[in-house]
Task: inverse folding
């Protein structure tokens, strides 16, 4: 295990868990990555409520741990819209968020709603998101370890049939770049990171429209970190998309990878066997050369395999 890898536990919104003895006693865990939604941080227009962030930061610091914020503007359930209510009801924001879809076998006609994403490409919505970033940075820059924006992947299909108003893959790519620049301006001291895994409108290597590559190039220029969800060693989709780009950024900007639910059960295509914690760490540190690994708490892997291994090595 590379000594310079920073291990964080992704507790998502289960903030009470930052007081768990097993987490606090594991010295290899430098801190917690916690999820905060745009909706909870801005309950009313220009009315910010950062009380949860303050409380979590205070509790972590009191125990010698650090905070890494994941700022969430998307969801993976049709039941939860992650943007402030005022965006939904004001025509200037065109609904504030749009549905994402589950599409099987490219059958867009029978696509089912699978979650929501803020209208990142809508300049009116984007301006409001930028105000949130600047307000967060004003209070927490330099006090938190880092902040990341969620994955770039969105699913509106490919034909245009399900595209939200004003959306094109080109405009969306421009918006991601703009958001990264504002994130860096808001947090010049803390680590900034954009999860960039897949981009709508392309599929590498056959249909390369330079969207994902542009995100990574601009991240290097802006000094914004890069990373993504799902540590799945040697999986073809990831190997053709984010993994080589993350690897190219190693040592230039901060890099990170998230171990998410299901990753612990993944079968290593090179061995045909279920992946081990040691293999996950090895691939992250030696192949991707990431600076940060964010571990989910899926059981029994978190308690019975990850924690004992890290405690034995630190």
Result:
């Amino acid at each position: 295990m590379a000594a310079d890898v920073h291990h964080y536990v992704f507790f998502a919104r289960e903030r009470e868990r930052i007081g768990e003895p097993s987490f606090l006693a594991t010295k290899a865990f430098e801190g917690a990555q916690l999820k905060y939604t745009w909706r909870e941080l801005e309950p009313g227009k220009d009315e910010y409520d950062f009380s949860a962030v303050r409380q979590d930061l205070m509790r972590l610091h009191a125990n010698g741990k650090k905070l890494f914020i994941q700022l969430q503007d998307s969801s993976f359930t049709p039941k939860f819209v992650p943007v402030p209510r005022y965006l939904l009801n004001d025509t200037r924001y065109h609904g504030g968020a749009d549905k994402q879809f589950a599409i099987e076998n490219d059958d867009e006609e029978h696509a089912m709603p699978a979650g929501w994403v803020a209208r990142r490409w809508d300049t009116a919505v984007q301006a409001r998101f930028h105000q949130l970033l600047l307000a967060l940075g004003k209070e927490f820059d330099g006090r938190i370890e880092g902040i990341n924006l969620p994955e770039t992947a969105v699913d509106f299909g490919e034909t245009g049939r399900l595209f939200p108003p004003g959306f094109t893959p080109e405009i969306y790519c421009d918006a991601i770049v703009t958001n990264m620049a504002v994130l860096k301006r808001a947090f010049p001291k803390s680590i900034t990171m954009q999860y960039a895994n897949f981009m709508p409108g392309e599929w590498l290597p056959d249909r390369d429209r330079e969207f994902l590559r542009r995100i990574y190039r601009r991240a290097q220029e802006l000094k914004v970190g890069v990373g993504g969800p799902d540590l799945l060693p040697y999986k073809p989709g990831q190997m053709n998309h984010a993994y080589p780009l993350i690897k190219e950024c190693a040592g230039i900007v901060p890099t990170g990878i998230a171990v998410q639910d299901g990753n612990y059960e993944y079968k290593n295509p090179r061995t045909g066997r279920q992946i081990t914690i040691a293999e996950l760490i090895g691939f992250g540190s030696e192949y991707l050369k990431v600076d940060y690994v964010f571990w989910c708490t899926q059981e029994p892997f978190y308690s019975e395999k990850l924690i004992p291994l890290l405690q034995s090595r630190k």
In short: The chain has a mean pLDDT of 96. The first helix runs from residue 21 to 25.
